[in-house]
Amino acid sequence: RAVTTRLKYREDGEEMGNRAMQQELAWGFAYVPALCARLKYYEEHRDKYPTFVDFYPDIIALFRSLKEQNLGDAFYKIPFAGPINAASSQGENLAFIVPTHESDTVAEQKLYEYVRKVRDRFHADAKIIYDDDALKNNLDTTPLMIYGTIEGNSWLSNHRAVMPFQIDTGKIVADSVYTGKELRFITALPHPADSTLGIVIYTAQSITDIIGINAVFHGPTDYVVAKGDKVLKAGIYKKVNGVWKFR
User: Fold this and answer.
1) What is the pTM of this model?
2) Per-residue pLDDT reduced to its tens digit, 198-247
3) Which of 121, 169, 178, 237 is deepest in the core (most CB within 10 A)?
4) Would you list the DSSP string of 76-125?
């Protein structure tokens, strides 16, 4: 696995190599990064290592070194790597966060009723929490599904800095600039407090556009931009050192 990951870096470039590395980590192969680093050293010192047989003792030494470091649980934690489907299937302690600061209070109540129906259908045991309560309570180990506009949901407003996208009344800025009305955005991101967990954000230009948003096809990618129910773009983020950005 380390060899094929290292070959991805060599033959296809850093971005594809990073994607291969993230996939190996997501599958639980925690030693791949350290092994890839040693393989790179091997490539750069072939005068010292004419064959892989000559280099193999270094691999044994690497594992001996890792053992002596008494690696803690953090070393083996698997970072969340997407996609949306992976974030929405993370166990029984899932929680939904709904807004309380939307300017349209009638639509806000309709959104709450809609989220309750979604919860009852797909995650019957999940809690529904108001945004202000979500900020007060410790949800650091809770996978989250967040609904609302950025301005109307205080949890989203408080975590705006970790969002790679922007939404205003005339456009959504993601991998490109999407202009117009009735624009929706669905995205998975790492949990701000625990990178091994994922969150899913269901948002739009207005709260009325969020009602019924689950009808937009989503799941196998990291994000979806839609106009009404029509998908305009579904894509995967570029992920480097835990930072998710558009390509």
Assistant:
1) 0.78
2) 999 999 999 999 999 999 999 999 999 999 999 999 999 988 777 899 98
3) 237
4) HPPPP---HHHHTTS-TT-EEEE-S--S-HHHHHHHHHHHHHHHHHH-TT
